[in-house]
Amino acid sequence: MEDTSPNDDQDTGRLNGAGLRRGWTTGACATAAAKGAYEALLSGAFRNPVAIRLPRGQRAEFHLTKTALDANSAMATVIKDAGDDPDVTHGAEISSTVTQLEAGAGVQFAAGVGVGTVTLPGLPIPPGEPAINPKPREMISGALAEVAGDYGVEADVLVTVSILDGEVLAQKTANPRLGIVGGLSVLGTTGVVIPYSCASWIHSIHRAVDVARATGIDHVAGATGRTSETAVQSCHMLDERAVIDMGDFAGALLKYVRAHPLPRLTIAGGFGKLSKLAEGHMDLHSSRSSVDVGSLAEKLGHVGASPEIVAEARMAVSAGGVLAIAQEAGLGDALCTHVARGSREVCRAALAGAADIDVLVVARDGTVLSYVGP
Predict the structure, then answer these.
(1) Strand, helix or coil at 192?
(2) What is the value of pTM for the model shown?
(3) Which residues contact 212 (CB under 8 A, 6 or more apart)?
(4) How sure is the predictor about 196, in pLDDT bands with cuts at 50, 70 and 90?
(5) Pairwise CA distance, residues 198 & 194, whole Å
(6) Peptide bond into 263 cis (omega under 30)
(7) Considering the chain, what is the average pLDDT of its residues?
(8) Is the CA virtual torsion 75, 51, 190, 205 positive or negative?
(9) Phi and psi at residue 168, in whole multiples of 5°?
(10) Cα 38–chain centre separation
């Protein structure tokens, strides 16, 4: 996913500490395509590969896979390589068309096919503008200024960024909920994709909160998955834009809401993930936190289970196993409520008064197992 964290490598083809190959953001690819196109517009020929300088000083080269040139414009395409990250735009064709404008126009931007347009306030780009974020705009403008300087001219051009099949790919992102219509966003603050950094997911959480605040939504819900999303939306009759797919990143949502307060926040998730949240874990992914079965068994004792049932629960291999034992003993609702209350207390501490908080524990079939309100 696209990176927002530091990176000092000079070559992202190197492996990171986990043995995974780093890649390039959409913003870096669009910059390379724009630079290659503008140089061809001024010189009459495409240079391939194209080298650009990334925001933190790294030098990167990109191969142009498609090119076109006429008297007033040039187009170049780069295939995005996201390295070993499961980025939805990995392999996408990112094209920049550079069109000459009148003197003094400066560098302007347009959304081509597959690049979205912002329609709601709260994002880094105002409504009506192409969804090309500030850092990619800065990267593109800088690269074009460099080319213009080499040829003794000013960069007065329109840059139209397109992404093949971007409108389809955007349906797999948070863009529709953020009011970005027509395609993907051009993102990236460093130009580099760190595999499994999940920075783009966290970025979408932040932007969803921003849009909610800017559009007057006073009740937002963070859900760990699609089933929980559906349950919480139905329970509270929330607009789709008010429901945030926080995935495993409860901490990222809570931290951002603490800094950007809202009147009310709901957290919805499955029993296992909320069991971890109740223990204070802010990253709920199975590889980064685990269910404390022993603690769950003790909670079962606190809600009235016999020592024999508690002992049986300690032998369970998962949170679901403990819940099944609790349900068989007629204590499933009580255990889920205990977990919901624990989760709410952890969230209240993290928010420090920034929002009223309530919690839903949701079964795999979408049934609400427990609700603890503000």
Answers:
(1) strand
(2) 0.80
(3) 122, 220, 241, 242, 262
(4) low
(5) 8
(6) no
(7) 91
(8) positive
(9) -70, -45
(10) 31
Residue 4 has pLDDT above 70, yes or no: no
Q: What is the pLDDT of residues 209-257, one digit of tens each?
A: 999 999 999 999 999 998 999 999 999 999 989 999 999 999 999 999 9
Q: Which two tokens stand for residue 34?
A: 């724009």
Question: Using 50, 70 and 90 to split pLDDT, how confident is the model at 7?
Answer: very low
CA proximity to 207, closest of 231, 228, 179 = 179
- Give the rounded distance of the alpha carbon of 344 from its chain centre: 24
Question: What are 331-341's pLDDT values in tens digits?
Answer: 999 999 999 99
Q: Which residues, listed in sequence order, are joined to residue 243 by a DSSP beta bridge?
A: 221
Q: How far is CA 336 from CA 267, 278, 347, 364, 371, in A?
A: 14, 11, 16, 14, 9
User: Any idea where the domains of the chain sit in the sequence?
Assistant: 23-193, 217-372
Q: What is the largest CA-CA distance in the chain?
A: 84
Q: What is 23-193's CATH number?
A: 3.30.2110.10
H/E segment holding residue 77: strand 73-79
237: left (phi over 0), alpha (psi -120 to 50) or beta: left
Contact by Cβ (8 Å): 43, 151: yes
Report DSSP letters for 128-186, one per residue. Answer: TSBSB-HHHHHHHHHHHHHHHHHTT----EEEEEEETTHHHHHTTSSTTTTTEESEE-B
Centre a 10 Å sphere on the Cβ of residue 57 and count the other Cβ atoms it contains. 8
